[in-house]
C-alpha cells in the first residue's frame, strides 16, 4: 500500500537540507499529515514483485554495514528527525502512520515500535491516529503481534494472496494455506482493532473456484478490510521471464474482469462494501485512512529508500538503494534523490485520476470541457451512476469499475 515504484522518475535536485519551497506549507493546517515508513528487506523475492526491496544476497557486498537490517530503524528515526526540521513549526499531529515494504516484520517488533515512537516524539499522534504495519504471515507470532499492539500499532495488513497452494507457488509465496487466516485470529487476540487481508486474482493456473475459495477463506477469518488486486506482470520480474519462456500462461484481462465481478458479489454478500476500486471494508471505520490520504492528495512524508513524499504540491523521492540512503543520512544530508513542483493543472489531473476510483467519486466541476463531454458519454454507456451525476459528481458503476482506467483517461483528456 505504500507508494513504492521500482523506477524513480526524473526531477530537479533536492537541497542538501531537504528544505521545501515556502509555498508548500501554506494552508498546511487544513490538510491531514501522514507518515509512510518503508522497510526494504525481504527474506526472498516473490516472482511477481517489482517493488524497491532487497534480500540479504542482493545486498551482500553492495551496501556494507550501512545497509544492515540491524541498524535500519535508527536510519529511519534520523529521517523522521530531518522531517521535523524541514516542516519546522508545523503544528499538525500525525493522522496516519503506515509501515510497508518489503517485509516490515523481518525487523524486530521493537524496531517498528521505535520508528513509530520517533514520529510520536517529533510530531505527536492524533488521538484517533491509524497506525498500520504490513506483515507476512510466516514472519509473525502471537508474542510479536502483542508487542506491536502494546507499542501503539492498531491496524495490521497481512499478505494472503490466495488460499490455494498451487497459486501461492506460482507467486513464490512462502507461507502455507491457512496461516494468514490464523494470523487474523492472533491479531484480534493481541487487541488489533482493524485487520486487512491482501488478495491477488488472475494468477496463471488459478480457476474461478480457486478464487472463490480464497475469498471465502479470507472472509471466514474475520478481517474488517479486504484488498483484492489483479495480478500485474511487471517486466524484469521472475514471473515475466517464466511467461516469456512459456512455462506459465499470460494473464488475461477478461479473466481479471470475471474475477473482479466474483469478488464484488462474494464480498458484498458478506457485508463488505467497496470504497475504492480494489478495496472493501465492513464499515467506514474499517477503511484504510492512510491510503485515503494518498487518494485525496493530502500531505505525507515517506521515509526509507525509494520512498515518495508529498507536501503542499511538492513531491519528492528518496535514493533507492539502502546503502546510498544510509550514507546520505550519515553525512547529515537529505536522502532525497529528486523532486517536482506540481502545477495547479497537475494537481487537478491527479485529483480526477485518484478520486474517480473512490466510492464518492469526483466533482464534475474539476473536468474540462472535453472531459465533461467524455463523462456524458460514460454516463450514457452505463459507466457512471446517474443519481450522483445529476448531483454534480462522477461516480463509477460496477461496469465502470471494470473499465476504471479507461474511464479515467477519457475524463482527464
Describe the 3D structure:
- The protein is globular.
- Residues 1-6 and 61-65 have low confidence and may be disordered.
- Helices cover 38% and strands 19% of the residues.
- It has helices spanning 56-59, 72-87, 109-122, 142-150, 165-170, 179-190, 208-221, 238-244, 253-269, 289-295, 322-330, 344-355, 369-380, 386-390, 398-402, 404-412, and strands at residues 33-39, 94-101, 125-135, 155-161, 194-201, 225-230, 273-276, 279-281, 299-303, 308-311, 314-318, 336-341, 362-363, 393-394.
- Helix 3 packs parallel to helix 4 (142-150) and helix 6 (179-190) packs parallel to helix 7.
- By secondary structure, the chain is of the alpha/beta class.
- The longest helix has 17 residues, at 253-269.
- It has a nine-stranded mixed sheet, with helices on both faces. Strands 10-11-12 form a three-stranded antiparallel sheet, with no helix packed on it.
- The two termini are 27 Å apart.
Question: Summary?
Answer:
This protein is of the alpha/beta class and 413 residues long. The protein has 16 helices and 14 strands.
Amino acid at each position: 500500500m505504500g507508494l513504492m515504484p521500482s523506477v524513480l522518475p526524473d526531477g530537479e535536485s533536492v537541497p542538501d537540507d531537504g528544505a521545501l519551497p515556502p509555498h508548500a506549507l501554506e494552508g498546511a493546517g487544513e490538510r491531514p499529515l501522514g507518515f509512510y515508513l518503508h522497510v526494504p528487506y525481504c527474506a526472498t523475492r516473490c516472482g511477481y514483485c517489482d517493488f524497491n526491496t532487497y534480500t540479504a544476497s542482493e545486498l551482500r557486498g553492495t551496501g556494507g554495514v550501512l545497509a544492515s537490517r540491524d541498524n535500519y530503524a535508527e536510519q529511519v528515526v534520523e529521517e523522521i528527525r530531518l522531517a521535523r526540521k524541514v516542516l519546522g513549526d508545523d503544528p499538525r499531529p500525525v493522522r496516519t502512520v503506515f509501515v510497508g515494504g518489503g517485509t516490515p516484520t523481518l525487523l524486530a517488533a521493537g524496531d517498528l515500535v521505535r520508528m513509530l515512537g520517533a514520529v510520536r516524539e517529533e510530531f505527536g499522534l492524533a488521538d484517533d491516529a491509524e497506525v498500520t504495519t504490513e506483515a507476512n504471515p510466516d514472519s509473525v507470532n502471537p508474542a510479536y503481534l502483542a508487542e506491536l499492539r502494546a507499542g501503539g500499532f492498531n491496524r495490521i495488513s497481512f499478505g494472503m494472496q490466495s488460499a490455494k497452494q498451487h497459486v501461492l507457488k506460482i507467486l513464490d509465496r512462502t507461507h502455507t494455506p491457512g496461516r494468514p487466516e490464523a494470523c487474523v485470529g492472533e491479531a484480534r487476540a493481541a487487541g488489533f482493532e482493524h485487520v486487512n487481508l491482501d488478495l491477488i486474482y488472475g494468477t496463471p493456473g488459478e480457476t474461478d473456484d480457486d478464487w472463490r475459495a480464497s475469498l471465502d477463506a479470507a472472509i471466514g477469518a474475520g478481517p474488517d478490510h479486504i484488498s483484492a488486486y489483479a495480478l500485474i506482470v511487471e517486466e524484469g520480474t521472475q514471473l515475466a521471464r517464466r511467461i516469456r519462456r512459456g512455462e506459465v500462461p499470460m494473464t488475461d484481462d477478461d479473466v481479471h474482469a470475471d474475477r473482479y465481478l466474483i469478488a464484488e458479489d462474494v464480498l458484498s454478500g458478506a457485508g463488505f462494501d467497496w470504497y475504492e476500486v480494489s478495496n472493501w471494508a465492513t464499515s467506514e471505520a474499517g477503511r484504510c485512512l492512510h491510503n485515503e490520504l494518498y487518494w485525496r492528495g493530502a500531505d505525507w512524508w515517506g521515509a526509507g529508500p525509494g520512498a515518495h513524499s508529498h507536501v503542499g504540491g511538492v513531491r519528492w523521492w528518496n535514493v533507492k538503494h539502502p546503502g546510498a540512503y544510509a550514507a546520505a543520512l550519515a553525512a547529515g544530508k537529505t536522502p532525497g534523490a529528486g523532486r517536482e513542483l506540481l502545477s495547479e493543472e497537475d494537481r487537478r489531473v491527479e485529483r480526477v485520476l485518484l478520486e474517480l476510483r473512490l466510492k464518492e467519486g469526483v466533482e464534475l466541476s474539476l473536468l474540462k470541457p472535453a472531459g465533461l463531454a467524455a463523462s456524458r458519454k460514460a454516463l450514457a454507456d452505463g459507466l457512471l451512476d446517474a443519481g450522483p451525476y445529476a448531483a454534480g459528481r462522477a461516480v463509477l458503476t460496477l461496469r465502470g469499475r471494470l473499465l476504471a482506467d479507461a474511464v479515467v483517461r477519457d475524463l482527464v483528456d
